[in-house]
Amino acid sequence: MSKATIGLTVAHRRYVPYSHAHYAGNLVDGAYVLALFGDVATEVCIQADGDEGLFASYSDVQFLQPLRAGDVVEVKAVITRVGNRSRDLDFSAYVVCRGRPDQSESAAEVLAEPLEITRAKGTVVVPVG
């Protein structure tokens, strides 16, 4: 029996290792955050429907700020619509801690306010049953 309800929210946090930096300034590509959105969507499906589900589509993706190696990023998925087999999700990604290589190689700080870096809308599908 499905437990999918509007408002069901799942969040993950992850440290972004320096091995994921692809660009000058230790920038990480946007695909990294999209992969995290896929992970959090999978947990939403497991919690709501007892199945990993399948990601069907994104209807909107906005990259608002950069993600850098050394950051701690939090991603969230919220169910916004429940269909027979589909669920619409709103995704958000925030940097909650940021590396400070200007101070030392291992310096970092907790941000006073999380910095929204990416938001998206997507649809997942789960088996009938």
Automatic annotation (TrEMBL):
Domain of life: Bacteria
InterPro entries according to UniProt: HOTDOG_ACOT, HotDog_dom_sf, Thioestr_dom
Domain HotDog ACOT-type as annotated: residue spans: 6-129
Gene Ontology molecular function, alphabetical: hydrolase activity; lyase activity
Keyword set, alphabetical order: Hydrolase, Lyase
Protein name: 3-aminobutyryl-CoA ammonia-lyase
Organism: Kribbella soli
